[in-house]
Write a structure and sequence with these properties.
341 residues; alpha+beta; conserved putative lor/sdh protein from methanococcus maripaludis s2 fold; Elongation Factor Tu (Ef-tu), domain 3; 3 domains; 4 helices; rod-shaped
Amino acid sequence: MNRNILFVAGLTALLAGCGHKSERAETRPLPSTAVRVQIVESKKRVATEEVVGTVRARLRSVIEAKVSGKIEQMLVVPGQQVTAGEVLAVIDAREVQARHDQAVAIRQQAEADLKRLTALLEQKILSPAEFDNAQARAQVAVASVTEVETLLSYTKVTAPFAGVITRKHADVGDLAAPGKPLLDMEDSHTLRLEADVPEAVVGKLTLGDRLPVRIAALETELAGVISEIAPAADPGSRTFLVKLDLPTQPGLRAGQFGRVAMPVGETSALRGPATAVIQRGQMELVFVVSDNKAQLRLVKTGKRIGSEVELVAGVEAGEKVVVEGAADLKDGQPVSMPNAK
């Protein structure tokens, strides 16, 4: 209600001022000028509701050790870029090394026994059953070495993919163990917006939809593509987690705040070019052409859609508004419209 009172008061004051201008125009005729006009039309658009979200990496990982032992070396720090397979930390696992040495010795003994028994079998001194037992022992010894070598390789903690280290949970001297986080890392090149969407809106979304996304730290609007929609709502907030893949953009980083426009229906409103609106202080004005004269109007604008803006009040459908040359016009000035049909 207060907005309407201010709008009427501003319009009254503007028209009063325009009256004085018209009286002066009668004593000194204004020159005619050429302008470009466009007809104000009622157009339909998709009604949207803004939902806030957070930019996160699509690929994230918590790095843990697969064997127990003290951390001997920590080779990375938060913020460091790493490549896939790069060694991040080294664990001092002397017990595993001892088991490896033991397994190698047993394998060597089993292979030597098998070689000796093979010669006895060829001389028919050894029974086939005894030879089979020796052969089985040799195979078990080889498998044991392979198992321990695999455990030994786990003492070097490597990066599962190329990315950036985001957090360090442990340092040199700390005890590493399976299930205990050492590092957090993420792929900073593949980002997405994660937003909690109300249940009244999520039903209008489908996988693959492209929605406009605005990031607070960026000036440009991004096109987000819906890649995931949670099948069940959060019982506390009654919202569904929706994830939108974002294109690569300079300045886009994980953790940033963003808004995504979700479709909720369809609406129509008068719309005209944004270039037709003149901003003077807190007032928004347009020039309407009537009887080949420019008339100054106080208007109220709504949402901006591309290069156009909604004209909520001040003009009617079918009226012609000046879209080029409006800044130099005066109320009541004669105009010509080369582009008018």
